[in-house]
TrEMBL record:
It comes from Phyllobacterium phragmitis. This is AAA family ATPase. The lineage of its organism: Bacteria, Pseudomonadati, Pseudomonadota, Alphaproteobacteria, Hyphomicrobiales. Pfam families: AAA_21. Residues 274-341 form the ATPase AAA-type core domain.
């Protein structure tokens, strides 16, 4: 399923945002404009599928921190509202997923700062009349099974649970399961740790790894899979050489662990291990693993991928994003106009300008 639009309201600086998404969605703006809130709001949709929505909000400081704090319309409930629309590329059917989270009532079984799911819906539009696949109001959930029958799910929901995660795992509701699989497959890369103990600097367990974990901990295995399972590192070698002054990856056949190193033109007989590489070098290699892996997720989201990179690396990064966009949707938020222009030149994607006015994030397409 391909994401075609996304809206968010009531979340941090996002009073009300609606975005149409393409193969590459590119957002550029200054620090503090709210770019990361766009990224984070989309990530919460994945969290709804994974069953971690409440935990993610709590980790941000709870609902009091996550809610829009500007002026609200009188009489309207205080809620975070997220909505995503998808198109099945094989059937052209469209799915809409909607979730609303609000504060717990004064007397409730929930904790003070966690979100309570007030409403949750999933609908399907095949070109006739939209069909409601799931409808949740409070703890009660109705959904259509594989035969199209509308049933009340027998398990009563906890206020902080998402119906999408609970019903997808039951095996009774195939369309809900399909959407959940798509969302769980999304990858969000919010930078990579580059300290000495960073996961990207460590050897990986020698297991075939078709795509990069969100923390980059299987980077060495991703490179080994490209080199020794797929047998094709042409794109990877080209991008590494372009970004790192003619350097070349050294990827030995794995034994119990997978490893990699870097050979630079100045020292052709010496392999530099990940622990010896600069922050910019190791971060670029992690981005290469995310964007050029054997298999790509349905959607890759990058939050300020230019961090710690030398400006000379940005054209190669833009080329990797363009290559990834041939196989996956890519969502990029950046404050670098240089990177945004390079991505536009490589993909044709027009940068959307993210601004903040009076505490509210706006997006100018």
């Amino acid at each position: 399923m391909r994401l075609i639009s996304f809206s968010a309201s009531g979340y941090r600086s996002l009073r009300s945002i609606y975005l149409e998404t393409g193969q590459v969605s590119l957002f550029v703006g200054e620090n503090g404009a709210g770019k990361s809130n766009l990224y984070r709001a989309l990530q919460l949709v994945k969290a709804a599928a994974e069953g971690t929505f409440a935990r993610e909000i709590a980790a941000e400081g709870g609902m009091q921190s996550a809610l829009w704090t500007g002026v609200r319309k009188a009489g309207k409930p205080v809620r975070i509202i997220l909505e995503t629309h998808f198109e099945d590329e094989e059937t052209a059917a469209r799915f809409s997923y909607h979730i609303e989270a609000g504060l717990p009532p004064p007397v409730s079984a929930g904790f003070k700062f966690e979100p309570h799911i007030k409403e949750e819906q999933l609908s399907l539009d095949t070109g006739r009349r939209p069909v409601e696949l799931m409808d949740r109001r409070g703890p009660a959930v109705f959904a259509r099974d594989g035969d199209g029958k509308r049933l009340q799910h027998p398990v009563r929901m906890l206020e902080s649970e998402t119906a999408l995660s609970l019903l997808a795992g039951s095996g009774r509701y195939p369309e809900i399961g399909d959407l959940s699989v798509t969302l769980k497959g999304w990858r969000f890369y919010h930078g990579f740790r580059t300290d000495r103990d960073s996961p990207v600097r460590q050897p990986s367990t020698a297991v075939t790894s078709p795509l990069l974990d969100e923390d980059g901990s299987n980077l060495a295995a991703v490179f080994a899979t490209l080199a020794h399972i797929r047998g094709d590192t042409v794109d990877l070698d080209r991008c590494v050489a372009d970004a790192l002054g003619g350097a070349k990856l050294d990827i030995p056949p794995p034994d119990r662990t997978a490893r990699f190193g870097l050979v630079v033109p100045e020292f052709p007989e010496r392999v530099f291990g990940p622990e010896e590489l600069s922050d910019g070098q190791i971060r670029f290699l992690a981005l290469a693993g995310a964007l050029l892996s054997y298999r790509l997720p349905p959607l890759i989201a990058l939050n300020e991928p230019e961090a710690s990179l030398h400006p000379s690396m940005l054209p190669a990064l833009a080329r990797m994003i363009a290559r990834a966009a041939e196989r996956a949707q890519v969502w990029v938020v950046t404050h670098s106009t240089v990177l945004a222009d390079a991505i536009r030149d490589q993909t044709g994607a027009r940068p959307a300008i993210v601004e903040r006015q009076g505490g509210e994030t706006t997006v100018r397409m």
